[in-house]
Every structure is written in structure tokens, then in C-alpha cells.
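During the reporting period, our protein records have gained a C-alpha cell line. A sample record is set out beneath this paragraph:
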Amino acid sequence: MKCQPDFYENIKSQDILWFVSQLNNKSICEKLLKSSFMVSDVDGSLTDAGVYVSADGEGGRNFSTIDGYVVQHAISSGLTIALVSGKYNLSTRIRGLRLGIPDELCIAGVKDKVNLINNLCEKYKLSFSQILVFGDDYLDTKIKKDIPEIIFACPLNAPFYFYHMADLVLPKPGGQHAFRLLVDLVLYVQKKHFAQDIISQALKVYKV
């Protein structure tokens, strides 16, 4: 049994409207077509910023399996993904390795992310315009401030005063699949998404 049109109208979400608005933004799409290296912050971006703490000290973090699913497909499509945390923690390395991210790109305890971006560009022979940074706080926005050529995206939970610095503000908070939506957009624009045809059909069905 097919769903009625009013059903689709009722389930239109901010995700769908945001996705379409980016597809209609020629400038954003041109930038995303160049993206080949994604650098993601961890706390507050891939997680909800919560940290488990016990009498023995700081524990693990809560990652989204939905984000993780798309990471593996992004890597297989040719995108390089690095996890970069300003705070030293084993969670970043463990999570990254399980998703197939090389050990050298699971980086924790980085206080100067601008310098790191410069080093990555030199090592991997990248231009700044090929870098997409996803982050929620000052260390991440400082990259955009110092290197305007990079693409900067932030989750909804980032402090409001960083929004104007972002090329993309996701309609979801970190840890609640914001990264998934961002990677979905990148892969779809580049025509590399594992569900490319399904997304195209959905956009027609929702009539947005």
C-alpha cells in the first residue's frame, strides 16, 4: 500500500529541507565537489559532548552508529576522514580504528588545529579548498578564521556566535547524526552516495 501525499507532507523534516537548500546553493555545491579530505572534531561533533566519569576518572564517549555507517562508505568512495580531538582520549583512536580510519588519522590531544591542517595539507599534497572541517567550538572555528579557503561545517549545538563563520550549519546536534547528514550531502553532490538513486527518488516524492 502506497503512502498518501499528505503523509509525505507531514513527515517533511528539517533534515530534508536543509538538504535541498544546500543542493540549491550553487556556491556550496561547487565547494563540496572539491572536498576530498574531511577532518572531524570528536567531543560535541561526533558525540553529544557527554563524558562518562567514575571514581577512576574519565571514561568513554557515546558515538552514533548511524554516523559510523556512513564513514565506512565515505572511505570506500575515496574520501579521506580524520578524527581530531583537542582532548587526549583513547576513545578517538578506538572508534576511528573500528571504522577503518588509519591510526595516523585518529589524532587526540591537539591544541593547535591550524598547524595540524597545514601539516596534513603538506603531507597529503592537498590544497586548503579540498579540506572540510566539522567542529563545534573555538579550536575548530579558528581553522576557518586563519584558513578561509577551507569549508567549515558545525552542528546545531555549536555556540550561536560561531554560526556566521560556518559555510554549513547542520540542523542536528553533534552525536545525533549531524555528521551522517553532512557526509550524505557531500557524497550525493559528488554522485558517490551508496543510496544515490534512493535519495533522488525521495526528493521527488517529498516534492521539495
In short: The domain at 14-206 is CATH 3.40.50.1000 (Rossmann fold).
